Amino acid sequence: MLYRVHFFPGLCLLILGFGLLCQIVRWLLQRYSWRWTIVAGACGSALLLALGYLLEFNRVLRHFPVWWSTWLECAAIVETALLFGVYLGMLSWRRAPEFRSGRRKFFRTAGAALFVAPIAATGFGILMRSRFRISEAKIPIPNLPKDLDGLRIVQVTDVHLSPFLSEREFARAIDMANETRAHIALMTGDLISRLGDPLDACLNQLARLRADAAVLGCLGNHEIYTNSEDYVTLQAARAGIEFLRSQSKVLRFGSAAINFAGVDYQKFQSNYLVGAERLLQPGVFNVLLSHNPDVFPVAALQGYDLTIAGHTHGGQVNFEMLHQNVNVARYFTPYVRGLYREGASAIYVSSGLGTIGVPVRLGAPPEISLIQLCAT
């Protein structure tokens, strides 16, 4: 239920923002006399928070130009982060008078740092969002056929071509992907973010993607949100890109074969991969393309040797605390970024290129993934 109506994380951010705003306003009213200024500012902040949440829904979104809607939603998210910093800063400043001058100075300095931290982190994350890199992953495969040993697969995913990522920047990423000279190229979903984003421009750049054997793909959740599944499938096919929608394709390399099966976006906490077992090819190496990585345990049970996914953005904003990665994506799935194994099966999850919500990447650099199969 929560996932279907955008209650999480949008509603959680809305509740958090309103809670922080109410507490900050209460403190300000207790300390300062300019009551109407504080109330007016609070009303403006509350309106932005509410609008940012409502813009998640298409029936509201269609009344705004895409540039405005994208940046208004971003502003609401950034406002919540700033309110959190202000709250922590004011909490420190309020405690400062309880201590002697030395400790009072420390608490006030700490409060100022907490206030500035979200602004500095956002600025740094904006700078990092388009610093694409090639991430190489060698995946050892038991009993891999000799002619598949060393097979190179380049993966592009989660482009989200939008006001946060320009066509020129995406073209640079495609150039980087082509420079890998991979045997197979994959696009695993989320071409754009919302209605009005430049879908045709994204398809034009994807048409430049090159590989020796084939360019394949699967669709993501944002193709569903924008009702563009059929359009993407048709236009991509004209450019030589085959999106596999409950379909499979066998490629041959020497005496060995590899089967790629693709599924449309699998909603979280739904019955995963219903019917996908029929796409398996006995006696060959089977690869599943699924935008959502949470399907991995089911894919492994069905007999897929390797699953390739995206969707998580590597958390997009990721912090390491006590040797644990802390990010929003972990709320949804344990398969956030990189290589995971379950028995003889493996999954690789790419952080992808684009961003959603805010044009920020922290602790999860944007990447083009180069996967190499290795015999063990």
Any overview of this molecule?
The chain is an alpha/beta fold and 376 residues long. The chain is built from 11 helices and 14 strands. It has helices at residues 7-31, 35-54, 58-61, 66-95, 101-128, 167-179, 199-206, 221-225, 229-238, 296-302, 329-332, and strands at residues 133-141, 152-156, 184-187, 214-217, 242-243, 247-253, 256-262, 285-289, 306-309, 319-321, 324-326, 338-342, 345-349, 367-375. Helix 1 (7-31) runs antiparallel to helix 2, helix 1 crosses helix 4 (66-95) and helix 2 crosses helix 4 (66-95). The longest helix has 30 residues, at 66-95.
Concise synopsis of the structure shown:
The chain is an alpha/beta fold and 376 residues long.
The global form is elongated
Amount of beta strand = 15-25%
- The H-and-E topology, N to C, reads as HHHHHEEHEHEHHEEEEHEEEHEEE
Helix share bin = 40-55%
- List low-pLDDT spans: 1-7
- How far do the termini sit from each other? 44 Å
Task: Report the structural category.
Answer: alpha/beta
* Number of separate helices: 11
Secondary structure: number of strands: 14
Strand order of the largest sheet: 1-14-2-3-4-5
Largest sheet descriptor: 6 strands, mixed
Overall pLDDT level? 88
Output the radius of gyration.
Answer: 23 Å
